[in-house]
Amino acid sequence: MVLRDPLRAEDVTRRLSQLGGWEKDPDREEIHKTFRVEYYTAVQAINDVMVPAQRLQHHPDIDLRWETLHFSLTTYSAGQKITELDFLLAEQIDQVLARYTAATG
Q: Which InterPro entries does UniProt cross-reference here (predicted)?
């Protein structure tokens, strides 16, 4: 399997069950998760997420609000489909945010 190949629906469901708090958007081919984290700490966390994102050459959509940090992942180069690359980055995002003791919101 190539990392950028679209996953079948059952594979997306299986991979989501292995990650805490990530969900599939019911209207779009993307996975997402929201973290509750203090605003200025979230800015640092975003910078730290960019390290694995750049390494994977896969960049999340990010929405930063007061005490809420939201990540959405889809593989644009696969036609906005969910791929294994999305799950690899989701795992990395969880590891980074764990350092900031972010709670899922």
A: PCD_sf, Pterin_deHydtase
Dihedral angle at the C-alpha atoms of 48, 51, 54, 56, nearest 10 degrees?
-110
DSSP string, 84-100: HHHHHHHHHHHHHHHTT
Half-sphere exposure of 70 (CA within 13 A, CB side): 12
What domains, with CATH codes, occur in the chain? 2-102 (3.30.1360.20)
> Do β-strands 103-104 and 31-36 pair in parallel, antiparallel, or remain unpaired?
antiparallel
Contacts of 42 (CB under 8 A, 6+ apart): 35, 64, 67, 69, 100
Tokens of 45: 């966390």
Contact 37, 67 (CB under 8 A): yes
- Residues 72-94 have a mean pLDDT of 97
- The pTM for the full model equals 0.93
